[in-house]
C-alpha cells in the first residue's frame, strides 16, 4: 500500500501536539509519584508504622502500572480501529479528571480505610489513561514524520514526558517547602487540582490534529483490521515480546524518580525534600535536550546501538547514583543524577518510540506498542515496591536495589540485540517480515 506524504507542516504540528499533550498528561502521572514518596504515607496510611506506610504508598504508585495492560488491550484495539486522534483526546481527558479527583479525596483521619481505597480507584483510572497515551502519540508522530527523520519526530513524545515530569517537580518544590501542617492539610492537593487546566489545554491542542496519512489510507482501502489483537498475536508475537522486554528499562525511571527520592529523604540519609526534587528537575531539564539529540543520532546510525547505550549504561550508572545518595554528598548526587537520568537513560528513552513503533505495520502499530510497553511498564511500576522490600527493614540497602535495577536492564539489552534494524526501512514497509534496512547507497534522502 502506497502511503501519501503528510501535508507540509503536519509532521511538526503532530510532534508539537504529542510533546505538549504528553507533558500535560505526565505532569498528572508524576505528581502522584512525588506525593506517593513524600505525602501519602502520612495522609492515607497508618503513621504509627512509617516503614509499612511508605511501602503501601509506593504500592499504590504501582497499581496504575498493573491497570495499564488492561487499558492497553482496549485502547490499542480502538486506536487501530478508529484512529490515533480519538484515543489521544480520550486519554488526556481521563487523566485530567482522575487526577483532579485525587486532590479532592478525604484523608484516612476523615474516613478511615475508605481513603486509600478511593486513592487506588483514581490511580487505576490514571493507569488506564496512560496505557493509550504514549502509544497513540508515538503512532501519530511516526506516521506523520518524513521517513529519514522518524527517530527525531517520535522522540517528542518522550521529551514531552520528561517535560511533564519537570513541570511536576517544579510545582512540588514550593509545595514541599510549606510548613508540615499546611503541607498535609491542603498544600499537597493544589498540584492535583491544577489538572483541570491540564485537561482543557490538552483537549484544545489535540482536537486540531489531522489523522495520519497511513491510517487514512487504510480506511480508504478498507484495510483496517477488525480484530487488531488477533492480527498482532498471529503476525507480530515475537515483536510484542521484544517490546515487553525492552520496556523493562523504564524501571530505571521509576527507581530513580520514586524509590531513590524516598531513600534520600529518609532518616537513613537525611537529605531535604527540596534538594532532591531539584536533582530530578535538573536531570529532566538536561533530558529535554538529550532525548532529541540521541533520537537524531539513531536516524543516522540506527536504533539498536543507541538503545543499547541507554540500557547498558543505565545499569552501571544506577549503582553509582544510589551509592552517591548513601554518602550524603549533595554535589555528587547532583552530578551523577544528571548523568544517569538526564544523559545516559535518555538514549533508551529517546529512541524507543521509533524503535518499537517501527516493528509493527500500520494495522496493529498502536496495539503492538500499547500492549507491549504496558506489560513491561507494569513490571517497572512495581519495581518501586520490590525495591522498598529489597532495601530491608531500615530501607537503606541501596546496593541490593542497584543490583535489582541492573538485572531489569538485561531483558532490554537482549531485546535490542535480537531486533531488526529499521531506521532506513520505508514507512510503508515497516513491520513486513521481508523488509530489510537498505545499504547507504540504496537509501534515498527526502
Notable characteristics:
single chain; 446 residues; mainly alpha; Growth Hormone, Chain: A; 20 helices; transport; cell membrane; membrane; MFS transporter; MFS_sugar_transport-like
Question: Can you offer a commentary on this structure?
Answer:
- The structure is a single chain.
- With 446 residues, the protein is mainly alpha-helical.
- The protein has one domain (10-208, 225-433): Up-down Bundle (Growth Hormone, Chain: A).
- The protein contains 20 helices and no strands.
- It is globular.
- The two termini are 19 Å apart.
- The model is unreliable at 438-446 (pLDDT under 50).
Helix and strand layout, with pairings?
Layout: H1 10-38, H2 40-43, H3 50-82, H4 84-104, H5 108-111, H6 114-144, H7 150-176, H8 180-185, H9 190-193, H10 195-207, H11 213-221, H12 228-235, H13 237-247, H14 251-264, H15 273-301, H16 303-327, H17 330-357, H18 365-390, H19 398-408, H20 410-418
Keywords: Cell membrane, Membrane, Transmembrane, Transmembrane helix, Transport
Subcellular location: Cell membrane
Main location: membrane
Amino acid at each position: 500500500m502506497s502511503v501519501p506524504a503528510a501535508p507540509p507542516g503536519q509532521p511538526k504540528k503532530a510532534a508539537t501536539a504529542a510533546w505538549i499533550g504528553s507533558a500535560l498528561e505526565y505532569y498528572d502521572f508524576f505528581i502522584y509519584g512525588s506525593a506517593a514518596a513524600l505525602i501519602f504515607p502520612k495522609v492515607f496510611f497508618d503513621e504509627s508504622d512509617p516503614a509499612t506506610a511508605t511501602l503501601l504508598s509506593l504500592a499504590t504508585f504501582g497499581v496504575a502500572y498493573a491497570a495499564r495492560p488492561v487499558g492497553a488491550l482496549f485502547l490499542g484495539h480502538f486506536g487501530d480501529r478508529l484512529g490515533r486522534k480519538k484515543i489521544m483526546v480520550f486519554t488526556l481527558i481521563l487523566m485530567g479528571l482522575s487526577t483532579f479527583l485525587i486532590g479532592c479525596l478525604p484523608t484516612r483521619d476523615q474516613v478511615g480505610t475508605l481513603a486509600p481505597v478511593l486513592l487506588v480507584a483514581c490511580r487505576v483510572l490514571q493507569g488506564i489513561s496512560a496505557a493509550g497515551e504514549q502509544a497513540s502519540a508515538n503512532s501519530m508522530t511516526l506516521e506523520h514524520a518524513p521517513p529519514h527523520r522518524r527517530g527525531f519526530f517520535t522522540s517528542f513524545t518522550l521529551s514531552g514526558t520528561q517535560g511533564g515530569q519537570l513541570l511536576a517537580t517544579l510545582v512540588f518544590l514550593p509545595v514541599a517547602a510549606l510548613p508540615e501542617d499546611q503541607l498535609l492539610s491542603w498544600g499537597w492537593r493544589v498540584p492535583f487540582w491544577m489538572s483541570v487546566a491540564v485537561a482543557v489545554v490538552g483537549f484544545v491542542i489535540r482536537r486540531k490534529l489531522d489523522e495520519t496519512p497511513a491510517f487514512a489510507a487504510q480506511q480508504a482501502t478498507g484495510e483496517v483490521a477488525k480484530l487488531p489483537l488477533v492480527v498482532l498475536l498471529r503476525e507480530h508475537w515475537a515483536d510484542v515480546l521484544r517490546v515487553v522486554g525492552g520496556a523493562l528499562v523504564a524501571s530505571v525511571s521509576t527507581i530513580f524518580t520514586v524509590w531513590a527520592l524516598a531513600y534520600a529523604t529518609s532518616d537513613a540519609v537525611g537529605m531535604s525534600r527540596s534538594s532532591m526534587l531539584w536533582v530530578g528537575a535538573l536531570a529532566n531539564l538536561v533530558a529535554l535536550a538529550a532525548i532529541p539529540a540521541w533520537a537524531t543520532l539513531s536516524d543516522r546510525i540506527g536504533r539498536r546501538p543507541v538503545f543499547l547505550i541507554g540500557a547498558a549504561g543505565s545499569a552501571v550508572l544506577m549503582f553509582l547514583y544510589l551509592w552517591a545518595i548513601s554518602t550524603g554528598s549533595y554535589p555528587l548526587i547532583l552530578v551523577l543524577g544528571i548523568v544517569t537520568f538526564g544523559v545516559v537513560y535518555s538514549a533508551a528513552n529517546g529512541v524507543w518510540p521509533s524503535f518499537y513503533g517501527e516493528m509493527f505495520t500500520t494495522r496493529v502499530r498502536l496495539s503492538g506498542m500499547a500492549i507491549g510497553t504496558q506489560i513491561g511498564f507494569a513490571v517497572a511500576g512495581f519495581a518501586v515496591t520490590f525495591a522498598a522490600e529489597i532495601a530491608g527493614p531500615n530501607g537503606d540497602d541501596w546496593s541490593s536495589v542497584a543490583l535489582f535495577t541492573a538485572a531489569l536492564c538485561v531483558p532490554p539489552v537482549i531485546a535490542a540485540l535480537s531486533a531488526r534494524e529499521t531506521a532506513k526501512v520505508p514507512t510503508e514497509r515497516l513491520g513486513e517480515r521481508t523488509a530489510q534496512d537498505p545499504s547507504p547507497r540504496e537509501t534515498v534522502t527526502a
